[in-house]
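The pair is listed for reference:
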Amino acid sequence: MVNGRPLDDDGSSSVGRHADLADSEHLHPVPGKSKPALVSIIVAALVLVTALGASAVVIMVGILPTWALVLVIGFDLLVAVGLAMVLWRSSPRRHGVRFWICMVLAVMMILGNGVALKVGTDYLRFGWGIQGGPKDTVMYDIVALTSGPAAASELTGTAMGEVTNDPLAQAVHEEVGKLASVTFVPVTPWTQLINGLIGGQFPAIVIEDGFMQVLEGADSGAYGQLKIIASFEIDASRAVQPTTTPTPTPTQPVGRSYIIYISGIDTYGSISTRSRSDVNILMVVNPDRGQVLLVNTPRDFYVQLRGTTGLKDKLTHAGVYGIDVSMGTLEDLYDVSINYYLRINFSSLVTVVDTLGGVDVDSAYAFSAGGYTFKIGMNHLDGKAALAFSRERHSFAEGDRVRGENQERVIEAVIHKLVNPAVLANYSSILSAVQSSLQTSMPLDELSTLVGHQLTTGQSWNVKSISVNGSDAHEYTYSYPGQTLYVMIPDQATVDAAKAEIMATLK
């Protein structure tokens, strides 16, 4: 023992040797004794999980071209694995500068991949959410005279009129049965059902809301005698047999030209509800040449509805029978194949325009509507102003013709705003805002390719608008054959000119 410190056999101090050993272990830990800290394990796991998740979502979204996809994902995964290995092998005794640099980089990667994961899942949810098909719903109304029962529950024990051979009759009976126990009496056609109600044959009837819309526009006197005491929606897929024969929708790869049918339905509620189609625009897109042609067909165009014989009808009434009938009717009119549809309602327009921060619309007329005043030239419009601009027709001598042109102008303004890369870069918030306002049949992969192409190239688009025209007349219609209605007899010269423009854009 020297100075109170024990000596080993070789005469050296054992305390000193122990201190040297401790210092040595701090610098070079003994194999098998070094364990990673819990925080290192957690951060390493998060780095790997977020990197893998973000990579999977980026692949599913498909916005990036293949070369960029491989480069981004490869670099992300390589760095994530490297950081995870460093963190996993670190120990509490080695938390030096290198460790904290790796921790900072790891946290940055977690946040970056987390943002990519959030944006990607928002985009996928949007794409899946706006896909058409199973969301087709039909609104039904229980209708009585204005002097009749005030609630559906008062109808128990009575006879209720319905349309004969309604493919959704079974589902309708189930929904009505939740409100009242009635006996159903089928009547054909639906106009005779209305006459039976007004004539006192039934205390109430159940009828598609689309036919009530037709009645409102065709015979305001009869419509004013009625009131809706209950309404409910039914999924169209519950039909015992299809209401119409579905029209196959041709598809072709993005990068070639295609046609989208834009249908503006006359409702403020669910985008999936069948309704009159007041806006009927064919958007012909040629991505290779950066051209867009908008072809407006007036709502009152007197045409043969797809799948019907005999009397022609207003184009707007086609929407009552489903989106397939509207598309098929326009295909027959212009001798084209429509690839996709985009359905938007009036509440959708307000949401879309407001989400884009407003749009700049060039007006050919000075007029006032809906509490807004519009000048000749450029007008910056928010959502409600754009809606008022699109719906007005009474201020113009040519009425619906000018309204159709103004609707095209608003769509043009929306397109110009959407193709701006600065706007597209913020598409996550745009998608979440308009998800419930749109419905389309365009596949998600093709939509992703378009968005990715626009983001990477910033391509400018030349948008051209045209409209077909016709002469005013009053004719009997397929949907309301009891009396003549205002219609627009097509001017075949303008239809032929539109066909030529469509083909020129497609090629």
